[in-house]
Amino acid sequence: MEGRAATRPGRRLALTACAIVTAALTSCTSTADRTADVTAALITPEGLLLHYTGGSCDGAVSTQAGEGRVVTVRVVAEQTGRDCDDVGLFRTVAVPLDQPLGDRGVRDEKDGHRLCVYRGERQLQPGRLPAGYALAREAPVCDGATALGLSRTWATAGPCPSSLTVTQAAGQALPSFRRSAWAPAGRLEVAGEPVRVWRTWSGGQESVAFERVLAGRPVVVTVSSATGCAQGRLPERAFLERLVGGLA
Question: What is the CATH number of domain 134-245?
């Protein structure tokens, strides 16, 4: 996680060249600071885990949250260099709240847009992962400001990492998979019920997907394996099928 400190409303923490007046959410950013674009949030026991677009020159990061009917958040990153690429990098930082979020919305103070917030709906979890895989990323699956589900990625360490990703998103349907890229791959039993499985392969990634119905809505679950370099090996198809069958 990239966040290193957080400020609550009414408190001030001098992490950057220009202090942030947290109570009034007043902009006070020097040329050494960059206000980040916050894209989504996950609810945590302490508050929120914010997803934002970072840069290669980001240094110390500070956060703030203004709490009312709507929670307004801001992420500011100190800039540590001059020649930085403009490619957006995935970053997360925690921000505490004085009260649980409940049904309140969350907005980015930078431009006022409403954030997609994942509120903890139950997800299928893999029963057992191979040795060496550790949780590397959790990100909401969003349609604008609406959270459809969650994507979780486990990865290995080293110069040629491999990853496994389980994505569960509601409101979608398998007909979107019925294209040339996806092919029927038989049936499996998942969490005690039979499901029809679809499979695709592209470059260094292989995926299988199936549909289930939760609370009257279709939910698509996709399990993908990927390798980070040309020398890496993807798991056998049977391994992915065992992983799918072990979801519960």
Answer: 3.40.1000
